[in-house]
Each structure stands twice: as C-alpha cells, then as structure tokens.
Amino acid sequence: MHNNDPNYGREFLGGHELASYDRIKDLKVFDDTKTGVKGVVDAGALSKIPRIFVRPDDELAEEEEEFRVLKNCVNSENSSKFETPVIDLEGVAWMNKNDVGYEQRHEEIVNEIRHASETSGFFQLINHGVPKNVMDEMVKGVKRFHEQDDEAKKPMYSRDPNKSMVYFDNHFHYHKARFAEWKDSLVCRVLSPDIINPQDLPETFRDIMLEYTKHVINLGDTLVELLSEGLGLALECTKNLDHICDYYPACPEPQLTLGSGKHSDSTFFTVLLQDDIGGLQFLHQKFWVDVKPVHGSLLVNIGDLLQVISNERFKSAEHRVVANLVGPRISVASFFSGSKTYRKLCGPIKEVVQ
After folding, report:
1. pTM of the model
2. Most distant CA pair in the chain: distance in Å?
C-alpha cells in the first residue's frame, strides 16, 4: 500500500529528462503535498529539478540570445552596468520642518524620487525610518515560518485569494503558468482597510509582523507625500497593504527555472525587504539589471496603477527573481493599493494629462 511507499505522492520528483510527463497530473500531485518547493528539497538530495519547474525551450533560447547580445553590446550604458538609484531619506525622516536646510533637502529628495520613478521605476531607500533590528527580525521570522514542521503549515495552505492569510507554493493560478516557480509564499493581508486581527497571524512571527507593519505603514505614508509632490497632485493609495513573504530554497539547476517569473506589480507601489543573497532583476532599456542588496535598505518599485494614473510619467518596470545555488533567499514584498471595493476602471488623473 502507498502508506509504506516513501515516494507516494512525490512522483513529480523525477528529473526533467524523463520521457513520460503528464504536466497536469504532476502539478496536482505537487500541490496535494502541501509542502511546497521546500518539501521538494527536503525529500532528498536533488541533482535535477522536477520537470514542472523547467522553463519552456523558447524562453530558455530567448534568454541565451539576450545574454549573447548583452555580452557583445557596444553601448555598455544600456547594459547591466546600470545601478539602482539609492535615495537617502534622512532629511525627511528625521529633520524638523523648521530646521535649517529642511526645505532644500526635501526638494532634493522629491526630485530624486521623481527622476527614479520616471526612468527605471526602481530605487533603494536608506535612512527610511524602519529600524534595522526590526527588519532583521522580520527576515528571521519569515524564515522561521517556512522552516517549521510541515504539519504546522498545512492548515494554512490554500489558493483562495480572498482569505486574509494563506500559505502556498508559487502563486494562486500557477496551473495556468508555463512553469512552476521555485519559491513558497505566505500572503498576509494586514490592512484591508482595517488592521488584521493579530490572532490570525502565525505565532512564529506574529509580534515582529505587527511591529514591522507599523513602520512600513508610516514609510508608505511618507512615500505617498513625496510621490504626490513629484507629480504635483494628491494621491491616496495606502488604504490596503498586503505582505507577501517569500522563501526561495537553494536550487540545483538555477539556469533552468526562476524564483519568480517576469511580471509587473498591479498595485500603486511596493516596498521590498530582502536578505543579502540577491537575485532580483528588473528590465531597463531591454536589459535585465541586478538589484544589489544593500543591508538596511528597502527597495521601492512603482506599480501598474501608479503608472496609469500618472499618464505613464512613472514607470512600472517588469521584474523577476532568478533561482540560485545558494539559499534560502528571504524577502517580504509590501504592496500598497487603494480601496479594493472600488471597481470603476481607472485612467490618468486629468491634472497630469497634457
């Protein structure tokens, strides 16, 4: 009987070179384990990743061609030498409005954020007001959650996008994707618009989640003010806040899959906390730019909604996370959006339409 078979329910673990392959069946078997990608890794030493994680041949061929073009690119300014802008918020976070030099520094910060939002759509913040020890503990808390016993996580496993908190592998509709992503996720809808009931949060990192959320909300309000000034109008886009806490295990064949596939964020903007491993890339002038982690910094990227209402002055860049031989990589993406009950189609705000 299958109860005595250690491989029962893990048939999908076969390497990607197997001749027989039923993708739908393998996806279901994988999903039914409710142990995610970490469960795949924990099942035993892997030399090859299961086929459901392998990117299609045309994607891999396109990637190889992009690498060849980049390697031979004469105009190196368009290549991966582009550096993610780093913006120091110290003048906003700590100075009093009556202090000497406040107005000048405030204007400089607004201009820096405007420029980054209009060009790459990505920028890193330092001196942002979120204590480093809170950030470090948040990373540890996410790692603790994902590395606890499988039986403790399984009750939260779901693909229902309406739940306030769910744990799952890949994304809600991964069965429609061309390949499965090499990551596990925990989604916490902490502000929608009321703050989440603390008892709904995992005990493994409940306290630090609430502490981190408090600081991120404050930072979000500051960013809204600065972005509003940059556009010359008043924005209201922090009514809802979702945290997606991702866990990217080490991958034996990182060149064949991705931790997170190419996408843009559908919200107003995202604040990202990440560890020091790296792997995040964004598209800039048709080339992938590596985001080099800066300890103590937070990364901000413009979302689709802000691009739309700014009449495309601000750029929502596509981005992805590459898989890595080293891991796990830990990140917390905080997505700020407006009212989720407002269903009217949105377009550019009339004040920014020329």
Report:
1. 0.88
2. 78
225 class by beta-carbon count within 10 Å (0-12 exposed, 13-18 middle, 19+ buried): middle
Amino acid at 125: L
Residue 138: enclosing H or E segment and its boundaries?
helix 132-147
- The pLDDT assigned to 71 comes to 63
Confirm whether 2 is domain-assigned. no
Which strands, in side-by-side order, build the sheet including 184-191? Answer: 86-88, 122-126, 298-302, 269-274, 329-337, 240-248, 184-191, 165-169
Per the structure, the complete domain to which residue 54 belongs is given by 23-346
CA distance 65 to 59: 10
CATH number at residue 96: 2.60.120.330
Cβ contact 218:129 at 8 Å? yes
In a domain, 10, yes or no: no
The residue ranges of DSSP E strands in the chain, in sequence order, are 86-88, 122-126, 165-169, 184-191, 240-248, 258-263, 269-274, 280-284, 287-290, 298-302, 319-322, 329-337
Q: Which residue has the tokens 């300890």?
A: 295
d(CA 293, CA 221) in angstroms, rounded, equals 24
Q: Rounded CA gap, 242 and 271, in Å? A: 10
What stretches in the chain show pLDDT beneath 70?
1-20, 45, 70-80, 91-101, 169-175, 237-238, 339-354
Task: Look at strands 240-248 and 184-191 and give their pairing.
Answer: antiparallel
